[in-house]
Amino acid sequence: MHEVFPKELRLSSSTWIAISGWILLALLYAEPVFTAQWQIVIDYGPWIAGIAWLLFVFFWAPRLIVDLENVRVRNIWLTTIVPYSRMDDASVGTVVKIKYRDNGDIERTILVWNAPGLPKITKAFAGENPEPIEVFGESKIVTEMWQEHLSDPDAPVERKVHWITIAITAVFAVLLAVKLWL
Fold first, then answer.
1. Predicted confidence (pLDDT) per residue in 5-58, tens digit
2. 15 CB-side CA count, 13 A
3. Do 115 and 74 touch, CB atoms closer than 8 A?
4. What does the domain layout of the chain look like in residue ranges?
5. 88-102, 129-143, 149-163: segment of lowest average pLDDT
6. Distance from C-alpha of 93 to C-alpha of 118, rounded to nearest angstrom
7. Which of 93 and 10 is assigned the larger pLDDT?
8. 145 in Cβ contact with 85 (< 8 Å)
């Protein structure tokens, strides 16, 4: 079977947390709207919108995007695009970790927020002398692509700050501060 790229990886629990949270918030907000309790709508609207925004920022938006030439790490405030040729190591454990050389050949490590890792094997789960277990999660594709597809060695690492995310979060923080002050 032929794989489709780019491949977006995100914890399935994060998807369900975000969607369930949004549904719950919509149900909580729908009752005062439909019963025309406008003071409640006005008082709690910013809180509901702020919580919905945080669900987006922390659970929906962060992901790992694997492409044929590079891997894109979309964390909360920053997206880093790392060509496979710039990667020194890619490890998939309980956290996906990518070590790479930046444009100035500075070694950096990025931990991928919200990418599916491997379950942590504890002694209680595995027994006193656990046998080595060959378990690979969805994120194992990063190491496979890194080992198989080395692209242009001079390809730059790109870092994009999510200014809109930062600005909207700042607006909600200011609104929260004003609301608590009044």
1. 788 888 888 899 999 999 999 999 998 889 888 888 888 888 899 999 999 999
2. 8
3. no
4. 7-62+164-181, 67-160
5. 129-143
6. 5
7. 10
8. no
Report the alpha-carbon distance of residue 26 to residue 45 in Å, rounded: 11
DSSP state letter for 37: -
Q: Are 158 and 81 in contact (CB under 8 A)?
A: yes
Which token pair is 46? 């910013």
- Hey, what are 35's tokens? 């019963």
CA distance 140 to 102: 23
Contact 66, 145 (CB under 8 A): yes
Residue of 121 and 112 predicted with greater confidence: 112
Provide the 8-state DSSP code for 4. P
Three-class SS string for 96-130?
EEEEEECCCCCEEEEEECCCCCCCCCCHHHHCCCC
The radius of gyration of the chain from alpha carbons, rounded to an integer in Å, stands at 21
Question: For the chain, first and last CA: distance in Å?
Answer: 60
Check residues 53 and 147 and name the one with the higher pLDDT: 53
